[in-house]
Design brief:
glucan endo-1,3-beta-D-glucosidase; membrane; about 500 residues; two-stranded antiparallel sheet; plant defense; globular; alpha/beta; glucan endo-1,3-beta-D-glucosidase activity; disulfide bond
Length: about 500
């Protein structure tokens, strides 16, 4: 009796620890409503180069699923609003879709979420009543395949699903959607799926600039907005909107459902009246957002609560209708160059630089610098970066690191990546962003040239200082370096699992 009790107690303790260490993550939306996008294979390479581990796509395109196979990237895939009718009418339609579009590629392609319908309350056609039946049929298909515990089913919504969002504590769902929301929330609660919401502080500022300050929308506000009902203090609109959703869920007694942000971001270009749609504001919003999420601070109403967020979007999409801003949400241009500098790891700011063993000061000097690979980078990240730099995207001549060539030895990824990184860096103006490589590139002031392996060099405006750091940033404050909570979670999980197994072994010996 005691033995069984101890086993259950320790197992429960382990699961509690594993759950508390899960952490929040940042992903990106990969829309393809454009004429000039790179192939899915190249898009997958770009995602890996920038160490993005989570991607949302809006369908189940086979070429995209194949491109992300064996990359380790977790995919959220979608069932479109056009497919809601057939999916809701017949179980066989959902079964066939899963058999043809998912099972042949899973688990090599790591699919973790399926969204059934997208912002249906905004759809001109009244399809909201079809969502839950379609979700149930998709879930049944997953159960038949034994995947219902590995792939979660939900649906995405615009903030328009709320009738009120300010103050956050007054957040409430629109009564006009009650017939649709009640069964949907019951489905989510029963299956432990998140409530997925698309949050856009940009629109709140654009449409109500007299009431909403730009700093408040960009996570830059030095003042606080007080919720008069709760006394909670808000320094940014993103948190206020998230908490409004949580309060709306609580009002309907769905307190256990977690919120996930499936779209947020800021456009880099807009029509003449959209003056806030600039690259600087887009960089500021997304940089501060990433820092906020990775640091795991939660929201005022849900401090330390896990919040997973997908940034919209990977590329600018030229076929999207509407104002100019609609076509300019991308972090990258279709040619895979950056619209602005963004570090998805949350470890550095927009315009800061890192040098191994040195502090740097911007000046008018002409000291030459080079870009090399960080010795702390993983092998897979270095290989992905080399493939990108030496491929058609980076357009670097990597002949020198081929066998029998002057830079082939030493034959390791750090050495080969360093040569490729530096060539790209020098060819692209020796700018900070040209040495990013998803956080695997490092700027140094010591010439890496050795033997007959000559590293390209140019002059730039960096001076090395011995004990001081003076770095100007024109976009946004640099976030405090922090490790990804997912990475920490993995280490802790492994440790606890081993400790648990050792405990059981010793327990067996004792009894």
């Amino acid at each position: 009796m005691l033995r069984g009790f101890m086993f259950i107690f320790v197992a429960s303790l382990l699961l509690m620890f594993l759950d508390c260490c899960s952490g929040s993550f940042i992903g990106i939306c990969y829309g393809r409503n454009a004429d000039d996008l790179p192939t899915p294979d190249k898009a997958a390479q770009l995602v890996q180069l920038h160490q993005i581990k989570y991607v949302r796509i809006y369908d189940s395109n086979i070429q995209v699923l194949k491109a992300f196979a064996n990359t380790g990237v977790e995919l959220m895939i979608g069932v479109s609003n056009l497919d809601l009718l057939p999916f809701s009418q017949f179980q066989s339609n959902a079964d066939t879709w899963l058999k043809n579009n998912i099972l042949p590629y899973y688990p090599a392609t790591n699919i973790t979420y399926i969204t059934v319908g997208a912002e249906v309350t905004e759809s001109p056609n009244n399809v909201s009543s079809l969502v839950v039946p379609a979700m149930n049929n998709v879930l049944t298909a997953l159960k038949k395949a034994g995947l219902h515990k590995k792939i979660k089913v939900s649906s995405t919504h615009s903030l328009g699903v709320l009738s009120r969002s300010f103050p956050p504590s007054a957040g409430a769902f629109s009564s006009s959607h009650a017939h649709f929301l009640k069964p949907l929330l019951e489905f989510l609660a029963e299956n432990q799926s998140p409530f997925m919401i698309d949050i856009y502080p940009y629109y709140a500022y654009r449409d109500s600039s007299s009431k909403v300050s730009l700093d408040y929308a960009l996570f830059e506000s030095s003042s606080e907005v007080i919720d008069p009902n709760t006394g909670l203090l808000y320094t940014n609109m993103f948190d206020a909107q998230i908490d409004a959703v949580y309060f709306a869920l609580t009002a309907l007694n769905f307190k256990t459902i977690k919120v996930m942000v499936t779209e947020t971001g800021w456009p880099s270009k807009g029509s003449p009246k959209e003056t806030a749609a600039t690259p600087d504001n887009a960089q500021t919003y997304n940089t501060n957002l990433i820092r906020h999420i990775i640091n795991g601070t939660g929201t005022p109403a849900k401090p330390d609560e896990e919040l997973d967020v997908y940034i919209f979007s990977l590329f600018n999409e030229n076929r999207k209708p509407g104002l100019e801003s609609e076509r300019n949400w991308g972090v990258f241009y279709p040619d895979q160059t950056s619209v602005y500098n963004l570090d998805f790891t949350g470890k550095s700011g927009g315009d800061d630089m890192t040098m191994e063993g040195n502090n740097v000061t911007r000046s008018n000097g002409t000291t030459t610098t080079w870009c090399i690979a960080s010795t702390k980078a993983s092998q897979i990240d270095l290989q992905n970066a080399i493939d990108w730099a030496c491929g058609s995207s980076g357009n670097v001549d990597c002949t020198a690191i081929q066998p029998s060539q002057p830079c082939f030895e030493p034959d390791n990824l750090v050495s080969h990546a360093s040569y490729a990184f530096n060539s790209y860096y020098q060819q692209n103006g020796a700018s900070d962003i040209a040495c990013s490589f998803g956080g695997t590139g490092v700027i140094v002031d010591k010439d890496p040239t050795y033997d007959n392996c000559i590293y390209m060099r140019t002059g730039n405006n960096i001076t090395v200082a011995s004990n001081t750091t003076v770095i100007s940033s024109t976009s946004s404050p640099s976030p405090t370096p922090s490790s990804s909570k997912k990475e920490v979670s993995s280490s802790i999980s492994s440790f606890l699992t081993i400790a648990f197994l050792l405990f059981l072994w010793n327990f067996e010996q004792a009894y």
